[in-house]
Amino acid sequence: MDIETSTPVANLTHAEGLWFKDCGLIIQAETTLFRVSRDFLAMRSPVFADMLSMPTPVDAEMMEGCPFVRLPDAARDVTYFLKALIYSEFFEPWPTKALFPVVAGVLRMSHKYQVDVLRRRALLHLSSQHPMTLDDWDATGKNSMRAHGEFLLEVILLARQTSALWILPVAFYNASTRLDIEILITGLDGRSLETTDVIACVQGLRYLDTTATSNILDFLTPRAIPGCVLPVACAQKRGAKRSEVEAWRVYEPQEDTNPIAPLDMWEQSDYHGVDVCGVCRSYIESFHRSARQSLWSRLPEIFGLPPWAELEQLKTEALN
């Protein structure tokens, strides 16, 4: 139990939907009060069970005749956590959609207070938006949490805090390619990365913007392709398209835009803009797929993380 200086009662508010008058435990987080069942909380969390099993001192703080506990956690996190415990429909298993702040709050609290069922559920939600295969990455689409820039730093912090290292390759890729360098270094909304993670993002970004992007676009290099029926014309068309695509890499900081990241640089529909023979078309499609898969395979290494196979094992152990 965390004992701190009491907050003036006038500033405290009851949490909506989490103040049960017939329950005997009052919890304070920031300026929010929760009144819940002591036995229920102890049954679900071994950490709370240990806290609440301690003999109550004679001079212990009470409120409305109930034991009183202050938590150092954010009131929002405590709200999400308790609602997930009490209301079955509030935080349903994946693939039911869940807002990222809810996932993050439940994961932080369930990890800290050892509520394994909620921890696994939150990790599944987070993992669904941070795939471990290229096919799953492509299927995730633009509407996933990876497109929500305001949460990119928090995902990394959350993965580190809860030892969910398999989240980090995609989380680092997203942060390094979608956030401004200043935000990566100094943080956002009071949240900042550890120095080692900042370095990983910056070094990874240098590789992605140079070597990785060159490798991804190499299928448009106007080289001779065995079996091509129009070698001169096809080479010219590939070269012209390469010049056009290079313009996508332009960085304009004053316009708050970043170059297109290498994994997103070319889509299936873009092939329609390359009018080459069938032999060349098959070649460039195969070459591009291979280059993207090669980059994906190296993604953990680029950011100084264990290989995918090791990360997959960590994920399996955490979710079983």
UniProtKB/TrEMBL annotation:
Domain of life, per lineage: Eukaryota
SUPFAM superfamilies documented for this protein: POZ domain (SSF54695)
Domain BTB: 23-130
Name of the protein in question: BTB domain-containing protein
